[in-house]
Amino acid sequence: GPERGMSLIEDSAPGPAAFRATLRRSPAAGARTAWLISYSPASDEPRLVRKIRTLLDGGWRVVVCGYEGRSPLPPEWNFVSLANQSAVGGLTARRLELQRRIGTHLARMDAPSDDLKGLATRLVYSGLPNWHRDHREILRIACENPDLKPDLVIAHNHYTCPPGWDLARRYNAPFLVDSQEYMLGVMLDSPGWVREQRPFIKAAQDYYFARADQVFAVSQGIADQLTADQRLKRPVRVMRNVPLHSAHPFRPVSGTRKLLYHGL
To answer: 258 to each of 75, 255, 261, 263, how far by Cα in Å?
Structure first.
């Protein structure tokens, strides 16, 4: 059950944390507070930045949990600076590897039991020191800053669902998931990925997407596929990767111009 899963995260810590997340406070306030969790350089991620801008324009206060980016941190953000650290060795590393293997084996069974899917996900998740520490630090920051209590939690992709769901459940807040790719199909040409990674992704999506109040996707095709794949409270909604409007004067050019846009 949920309480058992929570104790698993707390009790299976891979030794003392190598860092403590820091909270940079913003002077801006809002009537409601939204927490957004993204294991990425947050200020460099256009989709996340646009989403936060929309919330701020709607009168929300935001707490953003992520990694430091190259782009300047917007002053309106309350920012929880996480550290993507994973260095462990010796017996701890062996124990965590065994834990992940057990979790992956349970996930491969594709058991119909919700409890088993949740257990498999948390065994793999808490066996990864970087994600485990980020999870623990997010919950610590929330506990130590009651004035920032979440009224809404948004998890970006399946791998931020465990801290997102725990946070939303603890404070009785709506829980949303933004699934930015069709993760079950990204590397089907890799037997190792299909064997080792895909079972965890499926178990995580099966468990957490079913608990989300709403799941979003970047296109109608992915939304339709996720809606068909997953047991959801309501169909997936589309939130496209379209830039915010910015007016530019027309500048005529001659000849052919080539434009390459790649990721960030």
So the answer is: 35, 10, 10, 17
176 forms beta bridges with 154, 214
pTM given for the model = 0.86
Q: Residue for token digits 């959801």?
A: 232
Contacts 24+ apart (CB under 8 A), 255-262: none
How long, in residues, is the chain?
A: 264
Instruction: Name the pLDDT band for 245 (thresholds 50, 70, 90).
Output: confident
Secondary element (H or E) of residue 6? helix 2-11
Would you tell me how many other CB atoms lie within 10 Å of the CB of residue 251? Answer: 5
CB 145 within 8 A of CB 103: no
**Distance between CA atoms of 107 and 101, rounded to whole angstroms?**
10
